[in-house]
Amino acid sequence: MWFMLGALGCGESAKDSQPPDSPGLTETGDTATQAPDPFVALPDRSGGLTNVSEDLDTILEHGALDGACDAWRAQPDDAQKRLLCGKWMFFYETFGTEEVPRALVDFVLDGFVEDVGPAFSSYGLIPDPSSEHGYPLGMALGPGEEGLAFTCASCHFARLPDGRYAVGAANHQYDYGTHNLSMALLPLAAMESVTGAEVDELARADIQPLLDRLAADSSLQISFLGLLFSLLGKEAPTFSAESQRHYAEWLPGTQDFMIEPLPVNDEVHTVSKISALYGLPTEEEAAAAGMAHAMLGWTGNTRSLAGFVRLFDQLGGGDGPNFSDDQLAPLVDYISSLSVPSPPPADAEAVARGAAVFVDAGCLGCHEGPGGSGLTLYDYAEIGTDDALARWMDADGDGEPCCEADLGEDTLTGQLKSPRLWGLWAMERFLHNGAVGSLEELVCLDGPRTPITTPAMSNDGHLYGCDTLSDEEKRDLLVYLRAH
Ligand code: HEC
Ligand code: HEC
């Protein structure tokens, strides 16, 4: 596994190496036979772990994640132990990020199970069968056990449409906005008349069933008083009505991390769709394809997985920049080991026809790298999609990151990447802000898209193929896209 570590750490700069066989196909009209295949099967790097399965207990390695990092530290040369430690981190490490008070989580989970579901499953989280407290995978107790914080698994672990669970799949079922309102807004809205806190109407409507239940149930009201008592002395986070509204507006699978009540606020409303984490190119693969580096994040600004975790942690109020590559290595190694889940069977002839459309329609010109990722970044104006993200972390547009953020070796790009296209069959939202709800809609198979004009959430742009392909070509193209 060490070679992979080297591949993802900050070793030799990928920029200096010459792409040996850069595809160079940027024109339309090439035939599929000459074209490079962006979906070359990836080697199995799973190291004997199970990351795709119908059985959740198998995914959780039948209890072997518990204590996995201690076991690895005792035997640091054991590659499988290291991966198991990384997998534990993926599911349970909170990295010191901001916590939701445990009493609040327990109050909502115990008192409102009809509304939020066991372990918040009504909001799309997956219950952790090994949690004695009924917590979901993706929310874990922090070191002091006084609060819960998010782990990678909340957003990057999902159930596929065929019923299998897959680590690394984007959890587009997860209604992060409403889930957070159920914890952060519930006490504010319930106490509105006492505190005079401003509550946004749309946000209130999102959690109205919980407010109604609280108003109708006197024993729940007593627990609520107990909760307020336990929160006494804790500073309530700022949560303006405007920010509340954004939480209510976000579609499942989408969110903004730099907004109240989270610790770092960039004062720009942006909406990002959760990405899948499988099929990430190694540094060698990225360099061989001609990419400058891993180009992580929708803005393509992050050079390495370790850098991404440091950034995520920093935005979550943790100690991000101080995490060393060594500390993050098991997690980085583990994420690099995730394989793309096998797609459902498809008609081979339609796939072949679709592959030719992908080339002829010019898709390959921007999706020619590993797994269909692009090799460069694009301006929003060129692609025509929502451009709010251009000002992410940079409200004044001076190119410098706001909020005293430490991006390490990374810089802001103000641009957009062309994403990997693995696992599209298992995705429910498309484009960087998730504004498009199906691949059919993306290629306008049922006619022009119904416009959405809400700032940061608009669905215009990336109209490639919409007016140039026949319905038959579009259908073949979608069979091809869903076959990887
Ligand atoms: C609450 C949801 C959430 C949690 C928790 C979360 N992510 Fe993400 N992740 C996202 C979203 C949304 C994006 C897309 C953000 C963007 O690029 O603008 C993303 C993007 C990424 C990417 C970039 C992928 C690519 O191809 O560009 C990586 C890598 C990643 N996350 C790793 C992690 C790791 C590792 C963790 C745990 C330490 C984590 N994420 C926790 C929601 C989440
Ligand atoms: C000029 C470059 C360019 C061309 C041509 C192009 N794409 Fe894209 N593609 C992008 C970029 C950039 C994005 C990200 C856009 C965004 O999210 O706002 C993207 C996004 C996508 C997505 C969404 C993936 C996701 O996870 O949401 C799909 C699917 C896709 N492209 C398929 C195609 C197909 C099929 C074609 C040909 C009909 C095509 N693209 C042509 C650059 C291009």
Low-confidence stretches: 1-32
- The outline comes out as globular
Structural class: mainly alpha
Instruction: Give the domain tally.
Output: 2
Computed over alpha carbons, the radius of gyration is: 23 Å
Proportion in β-strands? 5-15%
If strands are numbered along the chain, what order do they take across the biggest sheet? 1-8-7
Bin the helical content: 25-40%
- Can you list the ligands bound to this structure? heme C
What does the average pLDDT come to? 92
- Gap from first CA to last CA: 26 Å
Instruction: Describe the main β-sheet briefly.
Output: 3 strands, antiparallel
The total count of helices amounts to 21
User: How many β strands by DSSP?
Assistant: 12
- Assembly type of the chains comes to single chain
What features would you describe in this structure?
This protein is mostly helical and 484 residues long. The chain folds into two domains: 270 residues, no CATH class; 133 residues, no CATH class. The protein is built from 21 helices and twelve strands. The strands form five sheets. The chain has a three-stranded antiparallel beta sheet. A three-stranded antiparallel beta sheet has the order 2-6-5. Strand 5 and strand 6 form a beta hairpin. Helix 3 runs antiparallel to helix 4 and helix 17 crosses helix 21. The longest helix has 15 residues. The site of one heme C has 23 residues, from helix 18.
